[in-house]
Write a structure and sequence with these properties.
Radius of gyration: 33 Å
CATH architecture: Orthogonal Bundle
Shape: elongated
Strand content: under 5%
Number of helices: 5
Number of domains: 1
CATH superfamily: Large-conductance mechanosensitive channel, MscL, domain 1
Length: 145
């Protein structure tokens, strides 16, 4: 069973997937910074300077809370639609960037394949002609006899 598990882990697909997950996790922090530090302020300008991630509706509890964090600390049930919208936006940005990366990689692969197809195939080494083979047979028979 241990050998089978080792063989499973050693397969290329599992290793590729592990690398992808690690890079994806690192990439998430970059996208989060892009959204939080660049896109949110731009959206905030169009919405009158309002922080989009702090949009929420109080579903239960009494009171007017200054922020989503304050409402959560008070134990009020809140519908944090701003956070959800930002999560969707993060997903769309990540999906678009991954699409662009895959598209670029596919184009590079296609260009490499076209170069291979266009390159003339190496000529196979020519074997001896029929005459050379017959002469070798004649010479071999002459040496034996």
């Amino acid at each position: 069973m241990l050998k089978e598990f080792r063989d499973f882990i050693a397969r290329g697909n599992v290793m590729d997937m592990a690398v992808g997950i690690i890079i994806g996790a690192a990439f998430t922090s970059i996208v989060k910074s892009l959204v939080d530090d660049i896109i949110n302020p731009i959206i905030g300008i169009f919405m009158g300077g309002v922080d989009f991630t702090d949009k929420f509706i109080v579903l239960s509890g009494d009171g007017d809370y200054a922020s989503l964090e304050a409402a959560r600390e008070a134990g009020a049930a809140v519908l944090a639609y701003g956070s959800f919208i930002m999560a969707v936006l993060n997903f769309l940005i990540i999906a678009f960037v991954v699409f662009m990366l895959v598209r670029t990689v596919n184009r590079v692969k296609e260009a490499a394949m076209k170069k291979e197809e266009e390159a003339p195939a190496e000529e196979a080494p020519k074997g001896p002609t029929e005459l050379e083979v017959l002469l070798e047979i004649r010479d071999a028979l002459a040496r034996k006899g």
